[in-house]
Amino acid sequence: MIVPDRAGAEALDREDPLADLRGEFDLPDGVVYLDGNSLGPPVHGTGEALRALVHDQWGNNLITGWTTHGWMDLPSRVGDDIAEIIGAAPGEVVVTDSTSVNLFKALAAGLALRPGRPVILSEEGNFPTDLYVAQGLTELLAGRAALRVVSAPDLEAALGDGVAVVTLTHVDFRTGRMHDLDTLTGIAHAAGALVLWDLSHSAGAMPLALDEWGVDLAVGCGYKYLNGGPGAPAFLFAAAHLQAEARQPLSGWLGHAAPFAFEPVYRPAAGIGRFLCGTPPILSLAALARGVRLLGSVDMTEVRRKSVALGDLFIELVAGRCGEWGFELASPSRAEQRGSQVSFRHAEGYGIVQALIARGVIGDFRVPDLLRFGLAAPYVRYVDVWDAVEALRGVMEGREWDRPEHRRRKAVT
Ligand SMILES: *Cc1c(COP(=O)(O)O)cnc(C)c1O
Predict the structure, then answer these.
(1) Which of 21, 199, 267, 318, by CA, is between 20 and 30 Å from 157?
(2) How many CA atoms lie within 13 A of 261 on its CB side?
């Protein structure tokens, strides 16, 4: 793809079959938003929908809203909508808790489904919360389970009789490198292990086929590509054939077979509902429902095709127009190995990202030297990529990264 000027990028936008989708989101004027891999924007009308829920449903119906408005079913209803986006069947996905908490439940369930196999296998580059949660679980199990962490190329060799669950994040949050989910799932199964995939950086960004690929367990984030809002609840997938045997240790009342029978002893609900713990956050779920419904109406193959094109363009423009400043591509140059983001390394990365934000181009920085740019195809335009790279050029030419206000570290990067 050769895009010589801004008009060339505008021409690509005119031919883009997803171009109209951008209008479905609330994005501030004058901002190029390349951080939807960390926090997606609101779907247009979410504020009004939440206001109506508070006033009309909660305000008018009070506690009867749980049944009159079907609030109690929201975790499974939104779960079914997510199932469609990730290639799962109705009844295989529930929305609840955070990704971290869901990892805990799913890991514990996976261990219990493979008795006699005490090992959880993961990789060094996994998202920290995934490793921390596994560490906490094995600590709790005091000697009855262990976490084995290896580098990605060593995963296959590290599989053995002892491994109960292989837990990996599909798309690396730093580099955007994507595991071959289908192949690794098959390799883990051949060794007798289950797989638990964290889809935080892929659900809503590309077509997935969890059932076709035989995935056992998965979790993912509601506030990134699913646009559910800050701290939106997360999702948990468990393959239908595993559900009857699956046990998870956060056995709260809403995962009980009959929560309102108030029985003294826990009995798990029949299906995916056993992965619930406590009362669902209805306002957050209602916001997430809108994000999910919008994405459910979009062809994920088109989303992926465009995000690949945006990534290729970004890489090409940085190489062509910012070559003299030594940005090192940290993401795979081959699109089939890359998720929906592009990352570069630069020693002044922190200041550069701050200076870009001051120019209205929002990406983010990850220690020690990574500049990350998320390319959420439903609302990022080709011209945004052009403008972002021109802003980067401006920041470097003017040494804007070196200003004291851009060097000062903030709490959330
Ligand atoms: C964002 C992200 C999470 C977030 O976990 P929370 O519990 O929702 O804070 C987990 N895993 C991965 C891979 C992520 O990218």
Answers:
(1) 199
(2) 11
Contact 352, 392 (CB under 8 A): yes
Which tokens belong to 327? 């940005």
Using CB distances shorter than 6 Å, the residues near ligand 1 are 98-100, 127, 129-130, 169, 173, 198, 200-201, 221, 234
pTM of the model: 0.98
Burial of 63 (0-12, 13-18, 19+ CB in 10 A): exposed
Residue 177 annotated as catalytic: no
Give me the tens of pLDDT residue by residue for the chain, a chain 413 residues long.
689 999 999 999 999 999 999 999 999 999 999 999 999 999 999 999 999 999 999 999 999 999 999 999 999 999 999 999 999 999 999 999 999 999 999 999 999 999 999 999 999 999 999 999 999 999 999 989 999 999 999 999 999 889 999 999 999 999 999 999 999 999 999 999 999 999 999 999 999 999 999 999 999 999 999 999 999 999 999 999 999 999 999 999 999 999 999 999 999 999 999 999 999 999 999 999 999 999 999 999 999 999 999 999 999 999 999 999 999 999 999 999 999 999 999 999 999 999 999 999 999 999 999 999 999 999 999 999 999 999 999 999 999 999 999 998 888 77
| Cα 397 to averaged position of ligand 1 atoms, centre (Å) | 35
Other C-beta atoms closer than 10 Å to the C-beta of 214 total: 15
8 A C-beta contact, residue 219 and residue 100: no
